[in-house]
Amino acid sequence: MTGANYRGFERTLINALNAPRNSSDNAPSSVNATFFSTPHFANASNAANSHTTTVNALWLSDIHLGCKDCKADYLLNLLNTVRCQHLYLVGDIVDLWALKRRLHWPESHNKVLQKLIELAQNGTQVMYLPGNHDELIKPYAELTLLNIKIARQHIHQGIGGHKLLMLHGDQFDADVCVGRFYAILGDHLYDLLLFLNRNLHRLRERLGYPYWSLASYIKSRVGKAQTAISRYRQAVVQYAQHYDVDGVVCGHIHQPELSIQPRDNQYTTPDKRQIIYANDGDWVENCSLITETLSGELQLCRWNEQSLSLDILRSIMLVQTPPNSPIPMPAQASRPAPQTATHSPIQAEIQPRDVA
Predict the structure, then answer these.
(1) Predicted confidence (pLDDT) per residue in 151-173, tens digit
(2) pTM above 0.85, yes or no
(3) Most CB within 10 Å of its CB: which of 24, 62, 114, 297?
(4) What is the rounded CA–CA span in Å between residue 340 and residue 350?
């Protein structure tokens, strides 16, 4: 996209944001388990190829369209391969900070934005929770733009009845900071890591190797980075416990994770002793996402650009069933059955599983 075209796109976006609000659009949205009943999904199912995957909900964050490190081509392949009833964009979708510094809007970024709008126009329930890099959108919470609902945070009710609070997570930056010196140093080192990551990816791609994140590898071995990640996780979980939810889905720190955390004593009840922490990662370093399958299983996935499919990294099953009753499971002979947590007076401990 040329500079002139981008300025035209920017004016169109601003005009749309400033359009009169429709009172029906301002009504709070509700999520239910009735899905794939519209003609759109019937037609999409018929047109889908054999590699298409269908899920109930899909969470994406930190795409950073407008940033030169965004893996837009990989994301476009994902959106053309995985179909969902609910698509949640959990902040930093368009990187307005990067666009202010340097105009970068290639055709692949434009196609991703068009695909998101196309999905919203054709039956997918799309919700946008702005982050810090796209904070221009935050004042328009509760508005529906191009069939995309905008909210600051939202609670998703899953197929199994579990509730997941969703937010970007930038409001916890003060809790994460490990000192001004380390924050400034971290910003410069992260820019360097992304530069090295970008050039290493180009070399590996030429040699036929799959994508691998040098930035994530190094961050996992830096003590201060791990301290910040731990503090962020703790702050998000503590905040989520104020709500009657089973888990929280966030982004912001570019660190994908799906784990079980203990509740604080004041929020612990006989049937709720733990809470799910789900960070869907990013599309700058990790190409990761969170999905909820049609059987109510939460999965942390990474996009495999070579097989054009999802690699499942971790999974948690949450279903509402009476004690000692059989739990219906999908036919997946090649994969071990996930552990199950029941919402009953006799509650089993929630156990995640790793999938090779």
Answers:
(1) 999 999 999 899 999 999 999 98
(2) no
(3) 62
(4) 6
